[in-house]
Design goal:
With about 350 residues, the protein is α+β, with helices and mostly antiparallel strands. The protein is built from 16 helices and seven strands. Strands 1, 2, 3, 4, 5, 6 and 7 form a seven-stranded mixed β-sheet that branches. The mean pLDDT is about 95.
Length: about 350
Protein backbone atom coordinates (compact mmCIF):
# COMPACT_ATOMS: atom_id res chain seq x y z
CA UNK A 1 0.00 0.00 0.00
CA UNK A 2 1.19 3.51 -0.83
CA UNK A 3 1.29 5.86 2.14
CA UNK A 4 1.79 9.59 1.57
CA UNK A 5 5.02 11.05 2.88
CA UNK A 6 3.11 13.63 4.92
CA UNK A 7 1.25 10.85 6.75
CA UNK A 8 4.50 9.10 7.59
CA UNK A 9 6.06 12.36 8.79
CA UNK A 10 3.07 13.12 11.02
CA UNK A 11 3.30 9.64 12.56
CA UNK A 12 7.00 9.97 13.37
CA UNK A 13 6.72 13.55 14.65
CA UNK A 14 3.78 12.83 16.95
CA UNK A 15 5.31 9.63 18.27
CA UNK A 16 8.65 11.31 19.03
CA UNK A 17 6.94 14.27 20.73
CA UNK A 18 4.97 11.89 22.95
CA UNK A 19 8.15 10.05 23.87
CA UNK A 20 9.92 13.28 24.83
CA UNK A 21 7.07 14.71 26.91
CA UNK A 22 4.67 12.00 28.13
CA UNK A 23 6.34 8.59 27.97
CA UNK A 24 7.10 7.82 31.60
CA UNK A 25 7.59 4.08 31.26
CA UNK A 26 10.56 3.30 33.47
CA UNK A 27 12.72 0.21 33.00
CA UNK A 28 16.39 -0.25 34.02
CA UNK A 29 17.58 -1.02 30.49
CA UNK A 30 16.03 2.09 28.94
CA UNK A 31 18.68 4.63 27.89
CA UNK A 32 21.32 1.94 28.52
CA UNK A 33 24.31 2.12 26.15
CA UNK A 34 26.24 -0.97 27.23
CA UNK A 35 25.65 -3.49 24.41
CA UNK A 36 26.02 -6.40 26.84
CA UNK A 37 23.21 -5.18 29.09
CA UNK A 38 21.01 -4.30 26.12
CA UNK A 39 21.61 -7.73 24.61
CA UNK A 40 20.81 -9.41 27.93
CA UNK A 41 17.56 -7.46 28.30
CA UNK A 42 16.50 -8.21 24.74
CA UNK A 43 17.17 -11.94 25.08
CA UNK A 44 15.16 -12.05 28.30
CA UNK A 45 12.31 -10.07 26.73
CA UNK A 46 11.97 -12.46 23.80
CA UNK A 47 8.56 -14.09 24.45
CA UNK A 48 8.44 -12.44 27.90
CA UNK A 49 6.62 -9.39 29.26
CA UNK A 50 8.82 -6.64 30.66
CA UNK A 51 7.54 -6.83 34.25
CA UNK A 52 8.02 -10.60 34.27
CA UNK A 53 11.54 -10.31 32.87
CA UNK A 54 12.66 -7.43 35.11
CA UNK A 55 13.76 -9.46 38.20
CA UNK A 56 15.58 -11.93 35.95
CA UNK A 57 17.47 -9.11 34.27
CA UNK A 58 18.52 -7.68 37.63
CA UNK A 59 19.62 -11.09 38.92
CA UNK A 60 21.69 -11.80 35.81
CA UNK A 61 23.37 -8.39 35.94
CA UNK A 62 24.22 -8.93 39.61
CA UNK A 63 25.58 -12.44 38.99
CA UNK A 64 27.31 -11.67 35.68
CA UNK A 65 28.21 -7.93 35.49
CA UNK A 66 30.08 -8.40 32.19
CA UNK A 67 29.94 -10.69 29.19
CA UNK A 68 33.23 -12.23 30.38
CA UNK A 69 31.57 -13.16 33.68
CA UNK A 70 28.74 -14.87 31.84
CA UNK A 71 31.15 -16.66 29.50
CA UNK A 72 32.98 -18.09 32.50
CA UNK A 73 29.81 -19.22 34.29
CA UNK A 74 28.78 -22.83 34.66
CA UNK A 75 25.72 -23.84 32.67
CA UNK A 76 23.86 -24.94 35.79
CA UNK A 77 24.32 -21.55 37.45
CA UNK A 78 22.84 -19.71 34.47
CA UNK A 79 19.95 -22.14 34.05
CA UNK A 80 19.15 -21.84 37.74
CA UNK A 81 18.87 -18.05 37.35
CA UNK A 82 16.70 -18.55 34.26
CA UNK A 83 14.42 -21.00 36.05
CA UNK A 84 10.74 -20.14 35.58
CA UNK A 85 11.28 -17.80 32.63
CA UNK A 86 10.50 -20.39 29.96
CA UNK A 87 11.86 -20.89 26.44
CA UNK A 88 15.07 -22.27 27.94
CA UNK A 89 16.80 -22.46 24.58
CA UNK A 90 17.26 -18.70 24.96
CA UNK A 91 19.53 -19.32 27.94
CA UNK A 92 21.49 -21.98 26.08
CA UNK A 93 22.02 -19.63 23.11
CA UNK A 94 22.91 -16.77 25.43
CA UNK A 95 25.70 -18.77 27.04
CA UNK A 96 27.00 -19.86 23.63
CA UNK A 97 27.05 -16.25 22.40
CA UNK A 98 28.80 -14.98 25.53
CA UNK A 99 31.53 -17.59 25.10
CA UNK A 100 31.84 -16.79 21.40
CA UNK A 101 32.29 -13.08 22.20
CA UNK A 102 34.81 -13.81 24.95
CA UNK A 103 36.85 -16.34 23.00
CA UNK A 104 36.57 -15.39 19.32
CA UNK A 105 35.92 -11.63 19.53
CA UNK A 106 38.28 -10.80 22.35
CA UNK A 107 35.45 -9.87 24.67
CA UNK A 108 34.27 -7.07 22.37
CA UNK A 109 30.60 -6.99 21.42
CA UNK A 110 29.83 -6.84 17.67
CA UNK A 111 29.38 -3.22 16.64
CA UNK A 112 27.31 -3.72 13.50
CA UNK A 113 23.88 -5.09 12.66
CA UNK A 114 25.46 -7.80 10.51
CA UNK A 115 27.87 -8.76 13.27
CA UNK A 116 25.08 -8.99 15.83
CA UNK A 117 23.19 -11.39 13.57
CA UNK A 118 26.10 -13.81 13.91
CA UNK A 119 25.31 -14.32 17.60
CA UNK A 120 23.37 -17.46 18.36
CA UNK A 121 19.69 -16.86 19.00
CA UNK A 122 19.76 -13.33 17.58
CA UNK A 123 17.36 -12.51 14.75
CA UNK A 124 16.58 -9.29 12.84
CA UNK A 125 14.53 -7.73 15.64
CA UNK A 126 17.07 -8.26 18.43
CA UNK A 127 19.98 -7.24 16.18
CA UNK A 128 18.14 -4.04 15.22
CA UNK A 129 17.37 -3.26 18.86
CA UNK A 130 20.97 -3.66 20.01
CA UNK A 131 22.34 -1.78 16.98
CA UNK A 132 19.96 1.10 17.59
CA UNK A 133 20.07 1.35 21.39
CA UNK A 134 23.79 0.69 21.85
CA UNK A 135 25.28 2.30 18.76
CA UNK A 136 22.58 4.63 17.39
CA UNK A 137 22.53 2.79 14.06
CA UNK A 138 19.49 3.41 11.81
CA UNK A 139 17.69 0.06 12.11
CA UNK A 140 13.98 -0.11 12.90
CA UNK A 141 12.77 -2.69 15.41
CA UNK A 142 9.72 -4.74 14.48
CA UNK A 143 8.13 -6.76 17.28
CA UNK A 144 4.57 -7.52 18.37
CA UNK A 145 4.07 -4.02 19.72
CA UNK A 146 5.26 -2.46 16.48
CA UNK A 147 3.05 -4.70 14.34
CA UNK A 148 0.04 -3.65 16.42
CA UNK A 149 0.73 0.10 16.31
CA UNK A 150 1.43 0.15 12.58
CA UNK A 151 -1.48 -2.13 11.64
CA UNK A 152 -3.98 -0.03 13.60
CA UNK A 153 -2.70 3.41 12.67
CA UNK A 154 -2.34 2.73 8.95
CA UNK A 155 -5.22 0.24 8.70
CA UNK A 156 -3.04 -2.63 7.45
CA UNK A 157 -4.96 -5.91 7.21
CA UNK A 158 -2.11 -7.99 5.77
CA UNK A 159 -1.44 -10.86 8.20
CA UNK A 160 1.77 -9.94 10.01
CA UNK A 161 2.89 -13.56 10.39
CA UNK A 162 3.17 -14.22 6.65
CA UNK A 163 6.19 -13.60 4.42
CA UNK A 164 4.34 -10.81 2.64
CA UNK A 165 3.23 -9.25 5.92
CA UNK A 166 6.66 -9.36 7.52
CA UNK A 167 8.18 -7.65 4.48
CA UNK A 168 5.45 -4.99 4.35
CA UNK A 169 5.71 -4.11 8.03
CA UNK A 170 9.53 -4.14 8.03
CA UNK A 171 9.68 -1.84 5.01
CA UNK A 172 7.19 0.59 6.52
CA UNK A 173 8.93 0.56 9.91
CA UNK A 174 12.23 1.46 8.27
CA UNK A 175 10.59 4.30 6.30
CA UNK A 176 9.11 5.76 9.48
CA UNK A 177 12.34 5.56 11.48
CA UNK A 178 13.93 8.78 12.72
CA UNK A 179 17.41 7.89 11.49
CA UNK A 180 19.05 10.70 13.47
CA UNK A 181 17.64 9.40 16.73
CA UNK A 182 16.79 5.77 16.09
CA UNK A 183 17.09 4.70 19.73
CA UNK A 184 14.46 7.17 20.95
CA UNK A 185 12.11 6.40 18.07
CA UNK A 186 12.37 2.62 18.53
CA UNK A 187 11.84 2.95 22.26
CA UNK A 188 8.85 5.19 21.67
CA UNK A 189 6.97 2.88 19.32
CA UNK A 190 7.59 -0.17 21.51
CA UNK A 191 6.48 1.68 24.64
CA UNK A 192 3.37 3.02 22.92
CA UNK A 193 2.39 -0.51 21.96
CA UNK A 194 3.14 -1.81 25.45
CA UNK A 195 1.27 0.74 27.56
CA UNK A 196 -1.19 2.58 25.27
CA UNK A 197 -1.95 0.63 22.07
CA UNK A 198 -2.39 -2.62 23.99
CA UNK A 199 -3.79 -5.86 22.53
CA UNK A 200 -7.03 -5.53 24.51
CA UNK A 201 -8.75 -2.37 25.70
CA UNK A 202 -6.25 0.09 24.18
CA UNK A 203 -6.09 3.53 25.82
CA UNK A 204 -7.06 5.42 22.67
CA UNK A 205 -7.93 8.52 24.68
CA UNK A 206 -4.27 8.80 25.72
CA UNK A 207 -2.77 8.04 22.32
CA UNK A 208 -0.85 10.79 20.51
CA UNK A 209 -1.76 9.17 17.19
CA UNK A 210 -5.52 8.94 17.74
CA UNK A 211 -6.36 11.90 15.47
CA UNK A 212 -5.39 10.04 12.29
CA UNK A 213 -5.58 6.40 13.44
CA UNK A 214 -7.63 4.36 10.95
CA UNK A 215 -8.45 1.60 13.44
CA UNK A 216 -9.77 4.12 15.98
CA UNK A 217 -11.99 5.97 13.50
CA UNK A 218 -13.34 2.78 11.89
CA UNK A 219 -13.73 0.70 15.06
CA UNK A 220 -11.05 -1.82 14.00
CA UNK A 221 -8.90 -2.00 17.14
CA UNK A 222 -10.38 -5.40 17.98
CA UNK A 223 -9.57 -6.75 14.52
CA UNK A 224 -6.12 -5.33 13.75
CA UNK A 225 -3.46 -6.59 13.55
CA UNK A 226 -4.42 -9.73 11.62
CA UNK A 227 -2.88 -13.13 12.23
CA UNK A 228 -3.07 -15.62 9.35
CA UNK A 229 -4.21 -18.59 11.39
CA UNK A 230 -4.44 -19.92 14.90
CA UNK A 231 -1.99 -22.64 15.80
CA UNK A 232 -3.35 -25.74 17.48
CA UNK A 233 -2.53 -26.40 21.13
CA UNK A 234 -1.11 -29.80 22.03
CA UNK A 235 -1.90 -31.36 25.40
CA UNK A 236 0.69 -33.59 27.07
CA UNK A 237 0.47 -35.68 30.22
CA UNK A 238 3.56 -36.03 32.41
CA UNK A 239 3.56 -38.54 35.26
CA UNK A 240 6.47 -37.71 37.54
CA UNK A 241 7.81 -40.31 39.98
CA UNK A 242 9.74 -38.80 42.86
CA UNK A 243 11.99 -41.78 43.54
CA UNK A 244 13.40 -41.63 47.08
CA UNK A 245 16.23 -43.89 48.24
CA UNK A 246 17.43 -43.19 51.77
CA UNK A 247 18.37 -39.48 51.74
CA UNK A 248 18.61 -39.14 47.97
CA UNK A 249 16.22 -38.42 45.09
CA UNK A 250 16.67 -39.46 41.48
CA UNK A 251 16.52 -36.73 38.81
CA UNK A 252 17.24 -36.69 35.10
CA UNK A 253 18.39 -33.99 32.71
CA UNK A 254 16.28 -33.25 29.64
CA UNK A 255 18.68 -33.40 26.72
CA UNK A 256 16.50 -33.93 23.65
CA UNK A 257 15.25 -31.10 21.44
CA UNK A 258 12.03 -30.55 23.33
CA UNK A 259 10.68 -28.20 25.96
CA UNK A 260 12.83 -27.51 29.03
CA UNK A 261 16.06 -28.68 27.38
CA UNK A 262 18.98 -28.82 29.86
CA UNK A 263 16.68 -28.60 32.88
CA UNK A 264 16.14 -31.40 35.38
CA UNK A 265 13.05 -33.34 36.39
CA UNK A 266 12.07 -36.46 38.37
CA UNK A 267 11.57 -39.80 36.63
CA UNK A 268 9.05 -39.22 33.85
CA UNK A 269 6.42 -41.36 32.19
CA UNK A 270 4.68 -39.41 29.43
CA UNK A 271 1.40 -40.70 27.98
CA UNK A 272 -1.14 -39.42 25.43
CA UNK A 273 -3.88 -39.56 28.11
CA UNK A 274 -3.79 -39.12 31.91
CA UNK A 275 -3.32 -42.27 33.97
CA UNK A 276 -4.98 -43.12 37.25
CA UNK A 277 -2.69 -44.65 39.93
CA UNK A 278 -3.76 -48.21 39.09
CA UNK A 279 -3.16 -47.61 35.39
CA UNK A 280 0.26 -46.14 36.13
CA UNK A 281 1.32 -49.29 37.97
CA UNK A 282 0.42 -51.37 34.92
CA UNK A 283 2.18 -49.11 32.43
CA UNK A 284 4.95 -50.96 30.57
CA UNK A 285 7.60 -48.35 31.41
CA UNK A 286 6.80 -48.54 35.12
CA UNK A 287 6.84 -52.34 35.11
CA UNK A 288 10.09 -52.42 33.13
CA UNK A 289 12.00 -50.62 35.90
CA UNK A 290 10.91 -53.23 38.47
CA UNK A 291 10.84 -50.76 41.35
CA UNK A 292 10.80 -52.27 44.84
CA UNK A 293 9.07 -49.94 47.27
CA UNK A 294 6.95 -49.80 50.39
CA UNK A 295 4.70 -46.89 49.40
CA UNK A 296 3.53 -45.02 46.32
CA UNK A 297 1.58 -41.85 47.09
CA UNK A 298 -0.18 -39.50 44.70
CA UNK A 299 1.16 -36.08 45.71
CA UNK A 300 -0.81 -33.71 43.50
CA UNK A 301 -1.00 -32.33 39.98
CA UNK A 302 -0.52 -29.05 38.17
CA UNK A 303 -1.00 -27.59 34.72
CA UNK A 304 1.30 -25.25 32.80
CA UNK A 305 0.38 -23.47 29.58
CA UNK A 306 3.18 -22.97 27.09
CA UNK A 307 2.80 -21.19 23.76
CA UNK A 308 1.43 -24.17 21.84
CA UNK A 309 1.31 -26.81 24.53
CA UNK A 310 -0.43 -27.55 27.79
CA UNK A 311 1.51 -29.73 30.23
CA UNK A 312 -0.54 -31.55 32.83
CA UNK A 313 1.84 -32.96 35.42
CA UNK A 314 0.95 -35.56 38.05
CA UNK A 315 3.37 -36.28 40.88
CA UNK A 316 3.88 -39.53 42.78
CA UNK A 317 6.22 -39.99 45.74
CA UNK A 318 7.79 -43.47 45.94
CA UNK A 319 9.76 -44.72 48.95
CA UNK A 320 12.11 -47.34 47.57
CA UNK A 321 13.33 -50.24 49.68
CA UNK A 322 16.00 -51.22 47.18
CA UNK A 323 18.11 -48.95 45.00
CA UNK A 324 17.06 -49.64 41.38
CA UNK A 325 19.20 -49.73 38.26
CA UNK A 326 17.31 -47.15 36.23
CA UNK A 327 17.57 -47.48 32.47
CA UNK A 328 17.90 -43.73 31.75
CA UNK A 329 21.63 -42.83 31.54
CA UNK A 330 20.97 -39.10 32.08
CA UNK A 331 19.84 -39.57 35.67
CA UNK A 332 21.66 -39.10 38.97
CA UNK A 333 20.91 -39.53 42.66
CA UNK A 334 21.24 -36.29 44.63
CA UNK A 335 20.59 -35.21 48.19
CA UNK A 336 17.56 -33.11 49.08
CA UNK A 337 19.86 -30.18 49.86
CA UNK A 338 21.19 -30.27 46.30
CA UNK A 339 17.71 -29.77 44.88
CA UNK A 340 17.77 -26.05 45.60
CA UNK A 341 20.94 -25.67 43.53
CA UNK A 342 19.50 -27.51 40.52
CA UNK A 343 17.54 -25.95 37.65
CA UNK A 344 14.03 -27.34 37.15
CA UNK A 345 11.03 -26.35 35.01
CA UNK A 346 8.48 -24.11 36.70
CA UNK A 347 6.02 -26.99 37.13
CA UNK A 348 8.54 -29.06 39.08
CA UNK A 349 9.73 -26.06 41.10
CA UNK A 350 6.17 -25.39 42.27
CA UNK A 351 5.74 -29.00 43.37
CA UNK A 352 9.06 -29.08 45.26
CA UNK A 353 8.32 -25.74 46.95
CA UNK A 354 4.79 -26.75 47.97
CA UNK A 355 6.10 -30.01 49.39
CA UNK A 356 8.86 -28.22 51.33
CA UNK A 357 11.80 -29.77 49.53
CA UNK A 358 13.34 -26.29 49.43
Amino acid sequence: MEIPGSTKKYFTTQLTAWHNTANNRSLPWKNEKDPYKIWLSEVILQQTRALQGLPYYLNFIESFPTVADMAAAKDEQAFRLWQGLGYYNRCKNMLASARYIAKDLGGVFPGSYEGLLQLKGIGPYTAAAIASFAYGLPHAVVDGNVYRVLARYFGIDTPFDTTTGKKEFSTLAQQLLDCKNSAAYNQAIMDLGAIVCTPRNPLCGECPLQKKCIAYHHDLTGILPVRSKKQSVRKRYFHYLLLKWKDTIWIQKRTNSDIWENLHEPYLIETPEPLEPGELLQHKQFKKENFIYDSLIFSGKSSQRLTHQIIEARFYSINLTKKPKISNPNGVWISKKELEKTAFPKTVVSFLENNLYF
